[in-house]
């Protein structure tokens, strides 16, 4: 797929999400002058990071992972010799749930088709999940439910899967926010990220 075509298809997703009045999170977004958070990074990224849903900083700027946990994610990406601009970063849910609560099942099912389309457009070789909600969704989407365990059991693990455009790898990672309140896990997260070096 040509760069221009990818750009247009991703722009279309953005327009649809901006006007997603069916979403239970739409009114909350309008009331608070928030932005939906679609995703950012290279449209030809080999690695796509998928978080759960935007927080307050993200909803105020429209950029994924731009707060404290975003700083951790940037450090982790740079630890494998890449920049944020080399990868693509998005979330399953594109609007902020109130009070940073976990996304609800109906919110995940409403927004997930946009993520599915982003994956098909960008065609990453690796989809890296950040946190348990994106892990559960991506593992289910790619037929890996039999492998699904708690994130403490399968963090840093690689799984083989098939997308419509070819073979891909799934890697399950802790959400970067974990490092903010469990500093002991930060070292583990850097170890988990080292797995990317084998793939690049």
Can you tell me about this structure?
- By secondary structure, the chain is α/β, with parallel strands linked by helices.
- The chain has a single domain, classed as Uracil-DNA Glycosylase, subunit E, CATH 3.40.470.
- The chain is built from 10 helices and 6 strands.
- A 6-stranded mixed β-sheet has the order 1-3-2-4-6-5, with helices on both faces.
- A hairpin with a 2-residue loop joins strand 5 (157-163) and strand 6.
- Helix 1 runs antiparallel to helix 5.
- The two termini are 22 Å apart.
- The mean pLDDT is 96.
Report the count of strand segments: 6
Sheet/helix structural class: alpha/beta
- What's the main sheet like? 6 strands, mixed
Q: What's the rounded overall pLDDT mean?
A: 96
Order of strands in the sheet with the most strands?
Answer: 1-3-2-4-6-5
Report how far the terminal alpha carbons are from each other: 22 Å
Please provide the ordered H/E string of secondary-structure elements: HHEEHHEHEHHEEHHH
Number of helices: 10
- Top-tier CATH class: Alpha Beta
What CATH architecture do you see? Answer: 3-Layer(aba) Sandwich
Beta-strand portion reads 15-25%
Give the low-pLDDT segments: none
Specify the CATH homologous superfamily.
Uracil-DNA glycosylase-like domain
- What fold name goes in the CATH topology slot? Uracil-DNA Glycosylase, subunit E
Percent of residues in helices comes to 40-55%
Please compute the radius of gyration using only Cα atoms. Answer: 16 Å
- Count of spatially separate domains: 1
Gross geometry: globular
């Amino acid at each position: 797929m040509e760069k221009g075509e990818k750009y247009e298809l991703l722009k279309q997703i953005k327009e649809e999400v901006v006007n997603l009045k069916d979403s239970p999170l739409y009114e909350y977004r309008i009331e608070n002058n928030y932005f939906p958070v679609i995703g950012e990074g290279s449209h030809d990224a080999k690695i796509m990071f998928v978080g759960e849903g935007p927080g307050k900083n993200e909803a105020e700027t429209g950029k994924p992972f731009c707060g404290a946990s975003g700083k951790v994610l940037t450090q982790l990406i740079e630890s494998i010799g890449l920049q944020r601009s080399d990868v693509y970063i998005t979330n399953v849910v594109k609007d902020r749930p109130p009070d940073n609560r976990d996304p609800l099942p109906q919110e995940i099912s409403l927004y997930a088709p946009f993520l599915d389309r982003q994956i098909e457009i960008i065609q990453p070789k690796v989809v890296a999940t950040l946190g348990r909600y994106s892990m559960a969704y991506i593992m289910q989407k790619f037929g890996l439910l039999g492998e699904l365990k708690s994130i403490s059991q399968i963090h840093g693990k690689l799984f083989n899967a098939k997308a419509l455009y070819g073979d891909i790898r799934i890697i399950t990672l802790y959400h970067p926010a974990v490092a903010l309140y469990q500093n002991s896990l930060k070292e583990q997260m850097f170890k988990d990220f080292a797995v990317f070096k084998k793939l690049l």
